[in-house]
Amino acid sequence: MMIMNNIKLAIACDHGGYELKKEILAFLDSEGVAYEDFGCDSTASVNYPAYAAKVCRAIQSGDCTRGILVCGTGIGMSMAANKHKGIRAACCSDTFSARMTRMHNDANVLCLGGRVIGAGLALDMVKLFVETEFEGGRHNARVAMLADIENEQ
């Protein structure tokens, strides 16, 4: 069981990620992980940048600590999320990347492709993303460099 008392996830999807988001929400409920669902609520076509923005703003405000975004491939959501200051979104399709992006990059948003991966793999990645802590150390300077680049823009 992965009860994480210090984590509250922000989660959202577009129409391409709706079915997978439902699976993720059921998993989070079963594991006792706190989250806020920012939509969407059906397979009707919506614009993914609007949903990415909701999750990113929840993280920026401190209402949520990390986020999960799901679209058809995960790519659009990751591109939209990474436009937001302080967001380090990673589009992952394997468990190694989901774990390492937390350990080495301090990623705060996991992006998944509902049309690319199955629910079993997605749930394994969500578990790793929630449980894995940032290693810090030599990685602190690299994450700080990302913030410096962002602040130059």
Overview of the structural elements:
With 153 residues, this protein is of the alpha/beta class. 47% of the residues lie in helices and 16% in strands. Strands 2-1-3-5-4 form a five-stranded parallel beta sheet, sandwiched between helices. Helix 1 links the parallel strand 1 and strand 2. Helix 2 (48-61) crosses helix 3 and helix 4 (95-103) packs parallel to helix 5 (119-131). The N and C termini lie far apart (42 Å).
**What is the number of E strands?**
5
Instruction: Give the strand content.
Output: 15-25%
Main-sheet strand order equals: 2-1-3-5-4
Shape: globular
Structural class: alpha/beta
Walk me through the topology.
Elements: E1 8-13, H1 18-31, E2 34-37, H2 48-61, E3 66-71, H3 75-81, E4 89-91, H4 95-103, E5 109-113, H5 119-131, H6 138-152
Parallel strand pairs: 1-2, 1-3, 3-5, 4-5
Helix pairs in contact: 1-5, 2-3, 4-5
